[in-house]
Fold Dolichol-phosphate mannosyltransferase.
Amino acid sequence: MSASLPLSVVVPVFNEQDNVAPLVREILAALRGATAFEIVYVDDCSQDGTLAALQALKAEVPELRVVRHLRQSGQSTAIRTGVKAARGDWIATLDGDGQNDPADIPKLLAARAAAEPQVKLFAGWRVQRRDSGSKRWASKIANAIRARMLRDATPDTGCGIKLFERAAFLDLPYFDHMHRYLPALFQRAGWKTVSVPVNHRPRGAGVSKYNNLGRALVGISDLRGVAWLIRRSKITPVEEA
């Protein structure tokens, strides 16, 4: 599929019916008149009214596209589904709970305009987290362990708002939970990454889909796997002869 837009905004969602409309309107306010774009929502087999809310919005928002998983598959798969369906050369991602601020997308685009071509990922950095104390402490510990093992020079890999080149992302190895390790994976592929301070907000409605213990147990296995990938990687310069 040849890309025909400069930007696609990909939003994975699971049971976020009350956050859909407010977030879509914020995306429109941030980007209409600034660049050509589309919004690709990926519904990860929601069990509430998320899909109905999205379908209702399509009638009034021509930029909106909706892709639906027929089986719940998780956030990483939903992001990859959205990127594969997207028509943009570059992808901006947002969490569907409203904690990421779409007004920060132009800030990421400005950072890209000022960066060298080797930078393929601009990662949001939540300088002031708006989560519970236990969640902030869990993230702080996880970030310290990740930084020590992967040496990805990234203060916050868990932030949902990111901007990256579509082609570079699709060239990365795919696995469940890969969205938490994108800076390390982009660097493994030979690209540079930049962290950009962004706004962070309390969840608009609904409840979090993660708990600290479950995230930690999965993270230990993932960290070992990503560290193994980095150790086994090889980057070979190529030129046309």
Summary: The chain has one domain: 5-231. The first strand starts at residue 5 and ends at 13.
